[in-house]
Amino acid sequence: MSDAVYITKERLLEMEAELHNLKVNTRKEIAQKIADARSHGDLSENADYDAAKHEQELLEMRISKLQTALSKAQVIEASDFPDDKIYILSKVTLLNLKNSQEFNYTLVSPEEADFDQNKISVSSPLGKALLGKVLDEVVSVKVPAGMMEYKILKISK
């Protein structure tokens, strides 16, 4: 599957729960908003109706996106990969060679990326640069601030 969406089991369950909630609960809520807005009369000048229809459109787009991602989902675990090189789900400790700061990241799929939790996407510039690299290797990556160089201090699962 070249267009597979690689996710953890936990993320798969989260996505399935979100999809279920959107289909079962949120659809009902928006349908009720549309019905309420319709009861106010002329739809041509009814801002509540327009807002509810727009909300419905956004909801259906989110449902479609989740369904597409789930249909392409391939569950992966860190144990699926060796820990001698950096792969998706690897935890890495990097040393920024310009300012000597250390950073800890976990490489994840784009669907699971969350910078606040130090989860970076394998499709980000840094994620792409790290894939396949080994311990003590120096990685150069172009970022908006310029070229950055990192030394790989640790790789784990």
Keywords:
alpha/beta, Helix Hairpins, Chitinase A, domain 3, 2 domains, 7 strands, elongated
Quick one: overall form?
Answer: elongated
- Low-pLDDT parts are none
Which strand order do you get reading across the main beta sheet?
Answer: 5-4-3-7-6
- The percentage helix is 25-40%
- What's the count of strands? 7
CATH class of the largest domain: Alpha Beta
Structure, explained:
It is a single chain. This protein has two domains: 71 residues, Transcription elongation factor, GreA/GreB, N-terminal domain (Helix Hairpins, Orthogonal Bundle), CATH 1.10.287.180; 79 residues, Chitinase A, domain 3. Helix 1 runs antiparallel to helix 2. The strands form two sheets. Strands 5-4-3-7-6 form a five-stranded mixed β-sheet. Strand 6 and strand 7 form a beta hairpin. It is α/β, with parallel strands linked by helices and 157 residues long. The chain is elongated, with a radius of gyration of 22 Å.
